[in-house]
Amino acid sequence: xxxxxxxxxxxxxxxxxxxxxxxxxxxxxxxxxxxxxxxxxxxxxxxxxxxxxxxxxxxxxxxxxxxxxxxxxxxxxxxxxxxxxxxxxxxxxxxxxxxxxxxxxxxxxxxxxxxxxxxxxxxxxxxxxxxxxxxxxxxxxxxxxxxxxxxxxxxxxxxxxxxxxxxxxxxxxxxxxxxxxxxxxxxxxxxxxxxxxxxxxxxxxxxxxxxxxxxxxxxxxxxxxxxxxxxxxxxxxxxxxxxxxxxxxxxxxxxxxxxxxxxxxxxxxxxxxxxxxxxxxxxxxxxxxxxxxxxxxxxxxxxxxxxxxxxxxxxxxxx
Amino acid sequence: xxxxxxxxxxxxxxxxxxxxxxxxxxxxxxxxxxxxxxxxxxxxxxxxxxxxxxxxxxxxxxxxxxxxxxxxxxxxxxxxxxxxxxxxxxxxxxxxxxxxxxxxxxxxxxxxxxxxxxxxxxxxxxxxxxxxxxxxxxxxxxxxxxxxxxxxxxxxxxxxxxxxxxxxxxxxxxxxxxxxxxxxxxxxxxxxxxxxxxxxxxxxxxxxxxxxxxxxxxxxxxxxxxxxxxxxxxxxxxxxxxxxxxxxxxxxxxxxxxxxxxxxxxxxxxxxxxxxxxxxxxxxxxxxxxxxxxxxxxxxxxxxxxxxxxxxxxxxxxxxx
Lengths: 319, 321
What we know:
The structure holds two protein chains of two kinds. Chain A has helices at about 5-20, 35-45, 50-60, 80-90, 90-95, 125-130, 140-155, 200-215, 235-245, 260-270, 270-275, 295-300, 305-319; strands at about 5, 25-30, 45, 65-75, 105-110, 135, 160-165, 170-175, 185-190, 195-200, 220-225, 230, 245-250, 280-285.
């Protein structure tokens, strides 16, 4: 099968969906040449650097029968549009009694490892998970990127696609033929029997690398990628933990009120799963600090394969 | 263009409906049948009615926290409005929105909005949709003098001007942003003067003269439909009531200022004008008012007779299918 990058997979999803549906159009502070060439400047608009305004524009156009795709670039810039995201996009369907649909796809890159310091190294998806009314995906492979983004564009709700900065150049197999990945379905990236590692985005790959090393020590690790944060596939995560009895959660975000905390609750609040647990949950997350610039410091605050492996050994020792 | 008597009588009816609806909503709010907060538009009726009279049904508008007037002027159903205020399942938002969030997308009313300036980008997106669609529809943003100081106003108008979106930006300058005088927060006397910074027409209108508002809106709509871009219309007007209907609010506005503006009642002005032209009799005016009061009574009865939402409905409509 051909291999393309994570970033290319995202672009393919946009091109295919914009061909498929004439009500789609693209808003971002720069217009991607690949899209302008095929779809023209009417449907591929370069906006002023005014995230609040163009996020709101997408909401109004969506409520008027269109299917906008908005790229904020880095998630950092989404914060400039917080009123439109939090007070408007998340609530407008419910608040108006469901009378109109707001199909919008927002794209934002997340994560660190790029030496861009605190403002441009963020993984704040749990801030958005805390709001009712937004769906969100977090792909870890080119295959998932393309399939999830296509599903996001077709969904009749605001969906945020959080995309890992570290994975933009990462290549993986993507079929030539049409496919989608449904929202709300986790993927078992590696089957194992001793410990479940639920990992997000870039850390899926770090967890897989850790699993290979641990395999040599005779430890069998299962790696679950939720892929969609809202709605989250509770059943797959719980079933894996029921099988292994041990859970490590790996997230590039900090731990406090994070997606990792939500995953821990999903597992431990479920009596059937909890009764089969042999050890406390272990989270392997970034330190709870703004991300620092200097290379040694940056690496120090982020989780990685070694920290995941240490977490796995810890839950094995605990029970 | 001279308006027909019939059209002017419709505008009179619409303005009086807004006033009577809000008088009743205020009473029912104070009696506890309506919850949360109610912001009355009384005194400013000529703005919503004058602008909406220049629109077609499929043109779109967005409102503010002070939204009843825009709903009624765009043709919303009084029963479903009142039921929403009463928190009933037959309301426009199935009882999930209340006064600050009434919307009726079927008539192009994209909602009242509880965030000052929050609706301006959204309705600009409706204008973008209208442009992409290419059928000559226009979109109208209603907002106050307070919103004209916020980023979304400037960002949205810049986009609309650059892309020549078919938009009307209608500032209802009632001289106060809640309790703060506009003079304390605007360096220029006229909000409309800001249009020059975006290269679009800025027009100042007597917002208590519904015919003047109509005329300005009609010209702006023609410009928008012709693909020439947006217009900023500033309507100078005044809110007769306190910021909200909550009793016991402090109101910094001088009593003589309030009374002076009440002398410029936009409804009486149009009614007197029509009578002077022999297009309306005192008897006809009383009859019209009686019909309006009866319609509002029916709306209240509809609301009172409607059930509150089932509790299971709390989990419905978080997401669309």
